[in-house]
Structures are given as structure tokens and as C-alpha cells.
Amino acid sequence: MSIQQVKLAGVLTSPIISEKSATVADTSNQFVFKVTKSATKLQVKNAVELMFDVKVDSVRVLNVKGKVKRFGRSLGKRSDWKKAYVKLQSGYSIELATA
Questions:
Q1: Global pTM?
Q2: What is the CATH number of domain 3-88?
Q3: Percent helix / strand / coil, the chain, rounded to 5
Q4: What is the pLDDT of residue 5?
Q5: From first to last of its 99 residues, what are the pLDDT tens digits of the chain?
Q6: How far is CA 5 from CA 8, 52, 53, in A?
Q7: Which residues are paired to 60 by β-bridges?
Q8: Residue 62 contacts residue 20 (beta carbons within 8 Å)
């Protein structure tokens, strides 16, 4: 395994399993992942193709702002994070339950 493949393996943090991501997966063959803050679209595409052995059609990346929460009398803030919507080419699929 090369150094570049090790770096790509660290790009994907976790899949996001929610009602919205399940709907998007069923209707338009898109899967949602939590990725590192510094990840680019090309890195996300290469990481998904490497890890799941599929062909990626497109990638949409968005920054999610952390919520401001109260802890007793003081205010705190959750950290910001990045989310990626990965659309696969037709004929490919990812089984997140077995991956």
C-alpha cells in the first residue's frame, strides 16, 4: 500500500446514516460521508473509489457549521465539520451495512 493510498484512507471519517441520506441513496444513487475538514472533491472521489471499488460520477461537498449549545450558564460551540454527497455511476452501489 503506497503512502498516497494511506492518506486517501484517512479522508473518509464515517458514513452518515439518516433518513435523508437513505432517501437520497434510494432515489439518486448518492451516498453521504463525513470527511476531514481539509478534504477536496478529488480526494473524496479517489478515496471512495479506492475503499469501495466503485466508479464515482460526481461529488458535492459542504461545510456544516457547529451548533452553539448551553452548558449550564456558559455557552459552548460544537466544532465545524465537512459533509460530502457522492453520486455513483449507474450500475454501482455501496452496501454500508456490510462495509
A1: 0.88
A2: 3.30.70.330
A3: 30, 35, 35
A4: 86
A5: 788 888 888 999 999 999 999 999 999 999 999 999 999 999 999 999 999 999 999 999 999 999 999 989 999 999 999 999 999 999 999 987 655
A6: 5, 13, 13
A7: 85
A8: no
Which three cell numbers mark 97? 451495512
Domain boundaries, the chain: 3-88
20: alpha, beta or left, given left = phi > 0 and alpha = psi -120 to 50?
Answer: alpha
Buried b (16+ CB within 10 A) or exposed e, 6-36: eebeebbbebeeeeebeebbeeebbbbbebe
> What is the spatial distance between Cα 26 and Cα 51, in angstroms, rounded to a whole number?
21
Q: Which three cell numbers stand for residue 95?
A: 452496501
Question: Number of C-alpha atoms within 13 angstroms, CB side, residue 26?
Answer: 7
Which of 53, 10, 7, 58 is closest to 34 using CA atoms?
10
User: Do 66 and 10 meet the contact criterion of CB atoms below 8 Å apart?
Assistant: no
